[in-house]
Amino acid sequence: MGAKDPEQDAVLRPDERFRGDYPIVVEGLKTSFGEQVIHDDLDLEVRRGEILGVVGGSGTGKSVLMRAIIGLQPVDAGEVRVFGRSITGAEPDQVLGVRDRWGVLFQGGALFSTLTVGENVEVPIKQFYPELSADLTHEIARYKVRLSGLPEDAVSKYPSELSGGMRKRAGLARALALDPELLFLDEPTAGLDPIGAAAFDNLTRDLKETLGLTVFLITHDLDTLHEICDRVAVLADKKVIAVDTVPNLMKLDHPWIQEYFNGPRGRAALTAQALDELRKHMDMPVAANAVKALDKPPAGKA
Amino acid sequence: MERADFAIEEQEGGGAALALTGPWLIATISDVEPRLASVEQAIARFDLTDVAEIDTVGAWIVARAARRLDAEITGCNDRAERLISEMGEFTTDEAIRPERASVFVRVTEKMGDIVYSGRSGAYGILGFFGALIMSSFSVIRHPHRFAYKALVRQLELVGVSALPIIGLMSFLIGIVIAQQGAVQLSQFGAETLTVNLVGRITLRELGVLMTAIMVAGRSGSAFAAQIGTMKLTEEIDAMRTIGISPMEALVIPRIMAAVFMMPLLGFYASVVAIIGGATISNFAIGIPFLNFLQRIQEVVPITDVWVGLIKAPVFGLIVALAGCYNGMQVAGNSEEVGMRTTMSVVSAIFAVIVIDAFFAVFFTNIGWN
C-alpha cells in the first residue's frame, strides 16, 4: 500500500506539497480514558484530495480520533502518521513540520476572544512566517475571511460580536490561513440553520476543489454526508467498521449502519438528493414525471 | 530550500514578459514579494509556465502585480488558473482592527468612561443590594424554597476550609506583633505592655481585618469566578427559565455564609494570634505562656471583643456582595471573568479598609476605647 512507501517517511520541505496517496494513516490505534477504552485496534487511511466523512453514535470517539490524529490526545498503542510523519511518537508541542500543513476547525470555532477575526487569521501566519510583511499578512487575512464567506466588515469584529454560524466561518478562515493541504472539521454544520448548513457544505466542497484540500469531516448531518463526502468512515465497536461511499455503505448488513442510513432521517436525506439529481434532467420525460410524482404526495397522505 | 523567483525578459514584439519560476507558496515568497511589488517597468504578460507549486498567497501576489501592471497572465496550469480566477476582483480596504482614535480623544474618552462606569457601578451595586434585600424577604416568606444544602456547602467552603490558612496567618502575625512590640517597648522598660498590644490590636483590629482580606482573596474571588462562569455558560439564564431565582439560589447562600462565618473566623483568628504572641513572649520577654493568657483577660476590655465581632459580619457582607455582584456582571467572553474576579477582590479589600476606618472613629467616639 502507498502508506508503506519508504519515501513518505521523509520530512517534507517547506517548498514541497505532499504527493503521497495517504496524508493520514492510522494503524492499530488504542486510546482510553482511565478504564474506559475508546478505540481499540482502529485502522483508517484517508486518501489525498477526498472529503472523508466520519460518523458514529454519540460517544464512539469521533472527536477523540481527530484529537489523536492532530496530536492532542495521548495514545495508548498504535501509530498515527500524517504526511508520513509519526504524530504518536512526538510530544504535543514538538515541531514536526506538519502543523503548518493542516487547519483545524473546532466545534465552537475556538477563536481567540481577545483578537478580532482578522487578527485571529493572522495568528498562524505570524507564527510560521514572521518574515512576511505586515501589509501582505493583512491582505492574506482579509482574503481568507472573504474566502470563508464572511462579509468584508467582519474582519475587524470581535468573536463575541458574531453569530454562531459566522463564528464557524471565522474559525474556518483561521484554519485556512496557511493554505493547508489537510483540513479537519469537527461538526461544522451542527447548530446551523438548514440554509446556513447547505451553504457551509457547498463552501467546503468548493474550497476542496479550489485549494486541493483533503478534508477530514466529523458530522452527524446526513445531508452533508450525501452531498459532499467522497467516502464515509463509520465508527462503532471501538473501530472503523467500514469506509466506503454512502450507497455502498447502505448495502452493508451492520445494524447500526442500517438504522443510521435507512432510518427516517436517512431516507429523507436520500430522497432529497435523488430529487436534486432528477431535477438536473428535467428535459427527459421520465425524470420530469418522477419529480412530479415525488413532489405531489399521494392523496390522503399530505 | 527552493525559493520563488522571477526574471524580466524583453520580447521581440515589444513589451517585456515576466517569467516566474520555483514554488510560489506562503513559505517561499517572503523575499520575492517586495521585489515584485517594486517592478515599475511596463510588462505585457506574466508567464507562469515554470511555476512548480502555487497557493492562494502566491496567486494573490501574482494577481495583484498583474493588475497593477495591467499585464496578462499566461501559462497557468489548472490549479494556478483556478486560484487566480478565484482571486477575481478581490480588493482589500477593510481594516483588520477597528480604527484607533488619536491619543487625546482616547484619554478623554477613557476618563469619561471611568466617570460613567463609576456612576453606573454605584447604581449597580445599590440596585444589587436592594434586589438582595427583596429576595431575602421572599426567602423569609417561603422558607421551604431556600437552598439549605447550598448554604451548608458555602459555610464549609468559606469557613471550615479556611481554618488552616487563617490559623497559620494569624499565628505568625501574633508572633510578629509580640516580638516587634517587645523590641520597641523594652526601650522604656515596658515589655509587659506587649500583652496589651497583642491582645487589643488583634481583637479590635487585625484579627478581623486580616481575616476579611483573606476571605476576599479566597471566597470573594471564588464567588465572582463561579457566578461569572455560570453566567457565560447560560446556567443563570437556564435557572431563571425554570423559575429559580439566581438571587435566592446562588447569591443569598453565599452572602449568608460569609456573614455568618466572618465573626467566627475573625474571633478564631484573634485567638490564634494571641496564642502566637504568648508563644513568642515565652522566649522573647520571659512572660510564661499561661501568664500571658491570664494577663490578656485582665488588660483587654470586653468592648474590644464586641468591636471585632460587630465589624466582622459587615466585612463579610461587603466581601460577598462584591464577589457576587461582579460575578453577575460578567458578559461576553472569558476574559471578563478574570477581570471581574480581580475587581471583586480589589474593591472588597478597599471597601473593607475604608469602612474599618469609619468604625475605628465611631467606636472611639462612643467611648469604647
TrEMBL record, chain A:
| SUPFAM superfamilies, sorted | P-loop containing nucleoside triphosphate hydrolases
Q: Which keywords label this protein?
A: ATP-binding, Nucleotide-binding, Transport
- Boundaries of each ABC transporter domain copy? 24-262
Q: Which domain of life is it from?
A: Bacteria
Q: Which InterPro entries match?
A: AAA+_ATPase (IPR003593), ABC_transporter-like_ATP-bd (IPR003439), ABC_transporter-like_CS (IPR017871), P-loop_NTPase (IPR027417)
Q: Which SMART domains match?
A: AAA
Q: Would the keyword Nucleotide-binding turn up in this protein's UniProt record?
A: yes
ATP-binding among keywords: yes
- Single GO MF descriptor: ATP hydrolysis activity
Mind telling me which Pfam families this protein's record contains?
A: ABC_tran
UniProt name for this protein:
ATP-binding cassette domain-containing protein
UniProtKB/TrEMBL annotation, chain B:
The cellular location(s) given in this protein's UniProt record come to: Cell inner membrane
**Keyword Membrane carried by entry:** yes
Q: Which domain of life is it from?
A: Bacteria
Keywords of the record, alphabetical order, are: Cell inner membrane, Cell membrane, Membrane, Transmembrane, Transmembrane helix
**Membrane spanning stretches:** 120-140, 160-178, 274-293, 305-328, 348-368
One MF term from GO for this chain? Answer: phospholipid transporter activity
Signal peptide region: none
| Gene Ontology CC terms | ATP-binding cassette (ABC) transporter complex
Q: How does the entry describe its membrane topology?
A: Multi-pass membrane protein
Q: What does this protein do?
A: Could be part of an ABC transporter complex.
Concerning its family, UniProt says: Belongs to the MlaE permease family.
Q: What PANTHER family does this protein's entry cite?
A: ABC TRANSPORTER PERMEASE, ABC TRANSPORTER PERMEASE PROTEIN-RELATED
Q: What is this protein called?
A: MlaE family lipid ABC transporter permease subunit
